[in-house]
Amino acid sequence: KAVVSTQSTGKVEGKPIMVILHKTWCGACKRLKPVVANSHEILQLSREFVMVNAEDDEAPAENAEFSIDGGYIPRIIFLDSDGNIRPEYTNVARGEKYKYFYPSVDEITRSMNNVLQGIALKTEL
Prior knowledge:
It is a single chain. The chain is α+β, with helices and mostly antiparallel strands. Helices cover about 40% and strands about 15% of the residues. It has a three-stranded mixed β-sheet with strand order 2-1-3, sandwiched between helices. The model has no long low-confidence stretch (mean pLDDT about 85).
């Protein structure tokens, strides 16, 4: 539900969407939360995105498109401003396995910048 309403917001605001999929009981998710919350760099970049914190039942589990690389958590998935999942924006540091898992600020901000550059190129064409 949160993702669907956010897709509309992304379209209205013309911003890409960053979805963080996680669970309250997940150890890796618990470790990611302060990484994101305490990062000035992520805060600055987040102003250019519609941010979605999809926790537990808020995650779009029924939507198979969000299981691009499996069902592991936490995952960060980017969508364009029209609400289309953009599977090409992955954590390049991870290689082919768990490519939507981001354990560090540097990895998250790298992808956020890549998304912003990719969207800017798209709108300039």
